[in-house]
Amino acid sequence: MTQRFPLKPLCLLVLQALACHAYAAEPADAAADDSATAAAMAGPVQSVEITGRGQSRQVQNINKADLAEALPGTSPLKVLEKLPGVNFQSADPFGAYEWSTRFSIRGFNQNQLGFTLDGIPLGDMTYGNNNGLHISRAISSENIGSVSVSQGAGSLGTASSSNLGGTVQFFTLAPTNERGLTFAQTLGSDSTSRTFARVDTGLINGVFKAYISGTRQRTDKTKGEGKQDQDQLNSRFVFNFGDNSLTGFINYSDRKEVDYQDMSLEMVRRLGYNWDNYESDWARAVNAAKGVFSGGVNSLDDAYYSAGGLRKDTLSGLTLDLHLTSNVDLKTTIYHHDNEGQGHWYTPYVKTDASNPISLRTTEYTIGRDGVISDVTVELGDHTINAGVWGERNNHTASRNYYGVTGPADTMYYLSKPFATDWKQNFITTTSQYYLQDTLALMDGKLKLNAGFKALEVDIKATNLVGTRAAGSLTAKKNFLPQAGFNYAVTSDDEVFGSASKNMRAHQPGVTGPFSQTQAAYNAGVANLKPETSVNVDLGYRFKRENLQGSLAVYNARFDDRQLSVATCAGILGCPSTLVNVGKVDTKGVEAIAVWKFNREISWFNSATFNDSKYKSNYMDGTTLVAVSGKTVVDAPRQLFNTELSYEGGAWFARAGGKYTGKRYYTYLNDGGVPSFWLANLSAGYKMKNLGFVKDLSLQVNVTNLFDKQYISSIGTNGFQASDPNGTAQTLLTGAPRQVFITLNGKL
Question: What positions does the domain TonB-dependent receptor-like beta-barrel occupy (predicted)?
Fold first, then answer.
């Protein structure tokens, strides 16, 4: 009989210790298979294993059950916040409002992570993205089958030039073998209406299947005036021939989101959590622009008339998956991405004319990406050899323009013919990556050792078209970025794992990269400019029992040559920034996750993280020394804890959960921060199965922010500050109040 460790007491002790510490420390793989696809599209199913068994890295997988019971339209990034090490914040209940989205893993922020959809790079998914798009625009959430999170060391073959601290991989649901129409209608708070419909062809002649889906979402903001709307079309086909397949997709998104006003701590105290921009009170905005304030306002920047973002994207790809021999597989993907975007901001700092003190300032973007990814897997006895290449050419243009306005009007459309342009730049970025890895299975497969490396080169050619921002060429290159790991099965249900990797984040073109400086500042600093690098080390233990599974991991990361874009004026003014190498960051921490399945109906999920990310180097801001050594990294909470109780019995299902987020700093000197908070959510529903000609009919209720907590959600929306002792930095957003939504879905 195989010896197994008594785990329940250990799990309870570890999780309770981490949770209590958090509370006391701070007061106040490819597309899913057809059976899984059919079940997921029909409605919630039982959760499956979420710990990445067999991996040498810390990995968790979120399945369709978690995605299905989330509020429809919820960003899958928000669903990931339950996992250890993950900090997610947004000012809207869906987590899809891109200006506010903040996602980090173990203290590495969003632009230091890697994101892919079916292997295709999404860039770093930041708001002013230059090389990708947000997952909420890349595909409707209803068409995502699973998500894999690798904290620390992402796989060598991940197509990303920014994954210093981990990767997030999204996988699309396959078309179903059965022909049918799947639909879902959501109604709820703030006039929300979301309609989703998907038509599957079913399997035709045993070789071909496809789907096309449409999504229409309309919702008002939770405070102030304005809407956040999106239309999407997704399509996908699979053609099987023998053991091989050809898969293709085209996804389109048209998103419009009106912004919330960025707040400061002082503004929250003076104006309240519900304060927002002036829209639709044009007269008040004009008076404020002239220095005539009312209703507690005492600053030109307390509010603007309005702001918003527009994004149109088309993402397409074609994948050929070949089973060449019994031990050789080759997978090749080509992809294309077109993007057009504008960020609108009514500014009182630039006049339309002598009679109108306000103009409409825009930041305008275009992206045209083409790429190819190819991976080969060869089985040679006890060896599994993986090798691959990735190449991409990206043509990105960004500009800052001003348009005349005469009064209140709907300006949420793509503007042209500005009366002034501050700057305009074009960037041609060429990326090439190749990798090689060998995985060796020993001791009858109980011990797996893997070692390999990747080489990454990213070349940027920047051309200045208008204004005084920098032009030139810049290359980030590392020919040897190694990774090694092991996985040892102590028993059939217990394993230990470890990994170490070195990664590089390439220089970024666009509005906050090195070319956002003046030419003089760029010329003065380019010789000392180095790409950011990190070394991540993981060591952990995974276990699985009949009614219990989980993992415990410790980690350490060293981050070198951190690049800091130092703002030289208020965000709305858009002055050229200064890029400074601010040295090292050290991170260490422990993560625990456990899921108890008490019986067939009830399970209890818990995850806890203690993360310590500290700056290790001071830096100079001009001639001023900023003494940040020993300070906690901004937006890196030391404690995170998540608990969720799930019920799935017969026709009824329900989930209730709470998330604790520790104190977060938005200043490098840690004199400005926002307090810790708990947030609770609830989802529940009833599966009516068949009703007449409708199959798998279900009704679901989602309540976000269950106890209507007032809290600060996103921080750093207008950048982070060196210091803010008076709490006046406008770089915070308040969280959404309680929201209630009802969804009816089924199949025809």
Answer: 267-706
Query: Over the stretch 67-96, which tens digit does the pLDDT of each residue have?
Result: 888 899 999 999 999 999 999 999 999 999
By the 10 Å C-beta count (0-12 exposed, 13-18 middle, 19+ buried), 360 is classed as buried
Average pLDDT over residues 34-46: 40
Two structure tokens written together for 478 = 């590392």
The enclosing H or E element of 559 equals: strand 548-560
Q: Among residues 343, 335, 338, 345, which one has the least CA distance to residue 312?
A: 338
**CA 606 to CA 596: how far, in whole Å?**
9
- Say what the pTM is: 0.92
Q: What integer is the mean pLDDT of 259-275? A: 97
- pLDDT tens-digit series, residues 588-644: 999 999 999 999 899 999 999 999 999 998 887 777 888 999 999 999 999 999 999
CA dist., res. 492 & res. 553, Å (int): 19
Q: Which domains does the chain have, with CATH numbers?
A: 44-747 (2.40.170.20)
Residue 360 tokens read as: 């409409």
Whether the bond into 723 is cis, omega within 30 of 0: no
The residue among 571, 579, 585, 567 whose CA lies nearest residue 733 is 571
> Alpha carbon of 659 to those of 112, 675, 682, 705: distances in Å?
24, 14, 12, 10
Torsion of CA 253, 256, 262, 268, to 10 degrees: -110
